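Researcher: Here's the sequence for the chain we discussed earlier.
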Amino acid sequence: RNTYPALLGGALLLLLAPLALAGRKRERNRTDLHSWKGPATVCLAVLGYAALAPVLGFILSAGLLLFLLFLFLGNRALTSLSLAAALSCLVYLVFATWLRVDLPRQFLEW
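Model: Thanks. This is the structure I predict for it:
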C-alpha cells in the first residue's frame, strides 16, 4: 500500500489543528452574519471546477476557478486574469510535466 498520502494528510491535520482552534476562539466573539459567504463561495467554485474539469480540462477550468475567486476577493479584472492564467499554467507545468500526474485533458487535447 502507498501510505504517503495518509502520512501527509495526518501531518497537515496536526499542523493545522492549532491554527483552526485559534481561529475558532476568535470567531466566537464575532457575530457576523456574512461570515458564511467566503466558505460558501469557495465550495461552489470547487464544485464548479469538478463539473467543468472533465469537459474543459485542467488549465481552463482551474483558470476560471482562480479568476472568479480572485474577483471575489476584490482584485481588479486584469489582475485576476493575469494571476489565474499564470497560476493555472504553473500548476499544470509542475504536476503534469515534471511530476507526471495525469490531470484532466482539454477538449483541444493540448
